[in-house]
Amino acid sequence: MKAFALESTDKPAALVTVPKPEVGEADVLVAVRAASVNGFDVYQANGFLFGMMEHALPTVVGRDFSGVVEAVGPGVHEFATGDEVFGFIPSTPPLKSGAFAEYVAGGRELVLAAKPADLDFHDAAALPLAGSAALDLLEAIDGHEGDVILIVGATGGVGTMAVQLAAQRGLTVVATARPDEEAFVRELGAT
């Protein structure tokens, strides 16, 4: 299958061919329809995480995805072939599997949920990591309608979702953002 992966420690990720994942007893095989890009993915694709986290090469980049279940192992009862799903692959070392591929597979190492019918694949793929972080943030502060919340970095993935969730809960949002986010990313050396 085609995947965007790291094959060595001295080169950034590139489009390569890797074996299609096999389906084990408790595994779900998902044909990926969409994947989102998080800051973690950018750093990993550029090789910046090699000194911080163990990698098993080739390492497919990407955490968040959405797609259609293509196969399930005999021990799987929560999902069936044809189900539309979304989820993420936790960044547990050694990093090996990723969402920037034609397929993802796994059992407990995949966090997977049924995709709501009214949510398209692209929107669903953008939710898992940033959405769960934003939701965790709001649950941790336990804000009540009328409270004021400051969201620093409101133009990032987590920030944009936190602003919307906070407003939906009736909180007054004060947000900060850099005037030129693209220049900031270039400054960090990411592409």
Explain the layout of strands and helices.
Blueprint: E1 2-6, E2 14-17, E3 28-35, H1 39-45, E4 59-60, E5 64-72, E6 84-88, E7 103-106, E8 111-114, H2 121-125, H3 128-141, E9 148-152, H4 157-168, E10 172-176, H5 181-188
Parallel strand pairs: 9-10
Antiparallel strand pairs: 1-2, 1-4, 3-5, 3-7, 5-6, 6-8
Summarize the structure in short:
The chain is an alpha+beta fold and 191 residues long. 24% of the residues lie in helices and 27% in strands.
Q: Report the helical percentage.
A: 10-25%
**Beta strands, count:** 10
Count up the helices: 5
Low-pLDDT residue spans: none
Main sheet overview: 5 strands, antiparallel
The mean pLDDT is 92
Global shape: globular
Give the SSE order as H and E letters: EEEHEEEEEHHEHEH
Structural class: alpha+beta
Structure, described:
With about 190 residues, this protein is α+β, with helices and mostly antiparallel strands. Helix content is about 25%, strand content about 25%. The chain has five helices and ten strands. It has helices spanning about 40-45, 120-125, 130-140, 155-170, 180-190, and strands spanning about 1-5, 15, 30-35, 60, 65-70, 85-90, 105, 110-115, 150, 170-175. The strands form three sheets. It has a five-stranded antiparallel beta sheet. Helix 3 crosses helix 4 (about 155-170).
